[in-house]
Amino acid sequence: MPDQPRPACPSTLFSWEFADDPYPAYAWLREHEPVHRTTLPSGVEAWLVTRYADARATLADPRLSKNPIHHSEVAHAKGKVGIPGERGADLMTHLLNIDPPDHTRLRRLVSKAFTPRRVAAFAPRVQELTDRLIDDFQARGEADLIHEFAFPLPIYAICDLLGVPREDQDDFRDWAGMMIRHGGGPRGGVARAVKRIRAYLADLIHRKRESLREVGADDLISGLIRASDHGEHLTENEAAAMAFILLFAGFETTVNLIGNGIYALLRDPAQGDRLRRALNEGDEGVLASGVEELLRYDGPVEIATWRFATEPVVIGGERIAAGEPVLVVLAAADRDPERFDAPDVLDLSRTDNQHLGYGHGIHYCLGAPLARLEAQTAIGTLLRRLPDLRLAVEPEDVRRRGGLIMRGLRELPVTWGPVAGAGPETGPAAGPGNAWGAGHR
Asked: How far, in Å, CA of 340 to CA of 81, rounded?
C-alpha cells in the first residue's frame, strides 16, 4: 500500500490562532515532527524540541550553549535571539546568556538570595502586598486581575528583594509595564524600557556602593556590590545585568503564572471549587500541589530561552549542525502523554508531576522558590477573600499576549458578588459567568 499522506498541522505556528491555544499544534508536532525546524516570526531559523524526554535531555546538554556568540548567524540575528535592547544597553552578561565557568560563578553569588530560609523570611511581605492589592479593588466588585493584581505583586516583591527604594518602585512598575504591553524589536517598548532600567541601575549601584560605607544592607544589589568589592571579580556591568535579569525574569514569569493559573481555575469549576474547599478546611498542601499542576498545565514560560549547538548534535533523530539555535518547547513537553497521564486534563491533586515549567539542569530557574511563594500566596488569598470570583467575559474573549518565550494574558476581567437576577434562595446561576458553579456565593 502506498504511504498515507501525513495530516497537516492543525494551526499555523506563531499565528494569533496558535497563540490562543497552541496545544493541538504541539500535540501534532510531538507525534509527527518532534524535533521540528521552523522559521520564527523574526526570520531566524531554529529547531523546536517538543517531547518530554528529548526536552529534559536537551536542557541539560552541555553541548548546547546559552551564549549567542555561538549562533552561526550571529551577525544577521543580532538583537533577534535575546531580550530586545539588552545588547545595546550592555546587559548581556547575565545568567540566561552565559555558560560555565562564568555562569557557575555568578549563580553562586546570587543564589544566596533565594535560599529556602531567605524566601520564607520574605513571606510576610508577599502576604502584605497581596492583601493591599486586593483591598484596593475588593469593594468595587470587578477588576482586571492582570494589571491590578498579577502584574504589580511580583514587581513590588522583586524590587524589595533587589533593594530598589520604595519611592522608586512605581517607576519600575511603569518600565515593566512597557515590557509586557508593547512589542519587541530595537524600537519597541521593551528596548526603551531596558535602556531606562539600565540607566537607573547604574545610578542605584553607585548610590548603594557609597551608602555601604556607612550602613549595612541586606538587599541583593548590595550583596552583589559587596561581593565585587571583596574580590569576587564581579564587574559593574555584571552586577547591573544580574539585577536586570532578576527583575525581568522574576516579574514576568510570575505575572503569567498567577494570571494563567487563575484563568485555568475559572475555566474549570470542579478544580477551582476543590481548591477553594481545601483552603477553607486548612489543607495548604493542595495549594502547593495545585500550583505545580498549574505550572505544568499552562505554564508562564512556553519556550525555554535560546540555546546554540557548539558542535553537531543529534536530538530525537534529527542532526543539528553547530551554530544552529535550539528552542525547547516546555509547553509541549509538559503535555506529553508518554510522560503524564491525561496530560490535557487539569488535576490539582496530580502527584507524579516532574514538569519542566522552570527548566532543568544548571539553568533551572533560580527564582522558582520565590515565584512559587508568590503564586501560592496570591491564588490562595484571592480565593479565600473572593470565593465567588468569576470571569466577567466569555472565555473566548480573554486575549493572549503575543511573544515567543512567555505565555500570558493581556487582561483578565473578573467580577464577584451576587449575580444580577439571582434570588437569595437560588444563589448565582451556573455557567460561564460563575466559575465555581451554582451555590457558591
From this structure: 31
The predicted-structure confidence for 343-354, as pLDDT tens digits, reads as follows 999 999 898 999
> 123 and 157 in contact (C-beta within 8 Å)?
no
Confirm whether 292 is domain-assigned.
yes
Does the structure show a pLDDT above 90 at 325? yes
Closest to 47 (Cα-Cα) out of 358, 319, 296, 298: 319
Helix locations, 182-235, DSSP H: 189-211, 220-229
- At 8-51, the pLDDT tens digits run 676 688 888 898 899 999 999 999 999 999 999 888 999 999 99
For residue 346, CA distances in Å to 61, 258, 280, 341, 377 come to: 30, 15, 21, 11, 20
Instruction: Please count the structural domains in the chain.
Output: 1
Residue 323 belongs to some domain of the structure? yes
Rg (CA), the chain: 22
Range of the domain at 372: 16-415
What is the spatial distance between Cα 376 and Cα 123, in angstroms, rounded to a whole number? 10
Assigned domain for 5 exists: no
- Within-domain flag for 124: yes
- How far apart are the C-alpha atoms of 100 and 411, rounded to whole Å? 39
Whose CA is closest to 80, among 112, 114, 39, 111? 39
Q: Which residues are registered as beta bridge partners of 37?
A: 47
Q: How far apart are CA 157 and CA 172, in angstroms?
A: 11
Q: Which residues in 38-59 are b (16+ Cβ under 10 Å) and which e?
A: eebeeebebbbbbbbebbbbbb
Q: Of 343, 390, 375, which is closest to residue 50 (Cα–Cα)?
A: 343
Q: Please, how many CA atoms are within 13 Å of residue 358, restricted to the half-sphere of its CB?
A: 23
What is the pLDDT confidence band of residue 180, given thresholds at 50, 70 and 90?
low
Report residue 349: phi and psi, to 5°: -100, 10
Which CATH number fits the domain that encloses residue 151? 1.10.630.10
DSSP 363-393: GS-TTHHHHHHHHHHHHHHHHHH-TT-EESS
- For residues 196 and 174, what is the distance between their CA atoms, to the nearest angstrom? 11
**Does this model's pTM top 0.85?**
yes
